C-alpha cells in the first residue's frame, strides 16, 4: 500500500479492534463524532471497551449506541449529562466512570500523543479530583465500590498543582471533513473539538472523512492534523445514515412568535 492509508469500508477499518480495547473517540456532544466507525463497531458487537471521550453521545446516537448495547465497560469523560442510560448504568454499578475536568482531559490526550507521560495543572486542586474519593464504580447496593485515588500535589509559584498522567489508547476514532490518502486531515469549524487530540492519543488511529482527496491537493498550511498520527482513512459514503449530523437539542422559534 505504500503511503496509501485508505481502506474500503468502516467495517474493514475496525475489524481488528478486539474486545477490551481502549479507544479515544473524537467529538463534542454530537458535533464531529465518527458516527460511521461507531456504527461499524456496534454492528460488529465488540465489547468490554474502555472509552476516552468528552462525553458518551445521547441515548440513541453516537457512543450511546455502544453504551445501550452493553459494549462499553469504562468511560473517561468530562461531561455526561445528555444520556439517561449512562446515568442508569453508572448508578447501578454496570459502568465505571472517571470524570475529568474538560481542559485536563484535552491536555491528557495531547500529552499522551506527544510522548509526555505526565504534567502538573492547577485544575481540580482543593476538590475530590485531587483529594480522591470520586466514585468510579458503584456497587449494586449503592455504595462506592471503586473510588478515585488522591493525586500527587506540588507547589509552583505559590499555588498547588496536581500531577495528571497523559493518555494513550489502543485505537482512536475520529471524523474530519477532508482527508488525503496519506492521512492528513482538515476539520470543519467546531467539529475540530477533541478530534485532533484523540487522534494523537491512539496507537492506531482511524479517520472517517467526508471528502477524500489525492496527496498534494491539500495546502500544508490548511492541514490541522498531519498524517503521521493517522494509520487508516475511510471515506464516508454519501447518504450513509450512520454519518448523519444530528443536533443534541434542537431549539426553534414558535410559529407566530415575535
UniProtKB/TrEMBL annotation:
Alphabetized GO MF terms: transferase activity
Gene3D superfamilies: Glutaconate Coenzyme A-transferase
Keywords in alphabetical order: Transferase
InterPro entries per the UniProt record, alphabetical: 3-oxoacid_CoA-transf_A, CoA_trans_fam_I, CoA_transf_BS, NagB/RpiA_transferase-like
Family statement: Belongs to the 3-oxoacid CoA-transferase subunit A family.
Name listed for the protein in its UniProt record: CoA transferase subunit A
Origin species: Streptomyces narbonensis
Taxonomic placement: Bacteria, Bacillati, Actinomycetota, Actinomycetes, Kitasatosporales
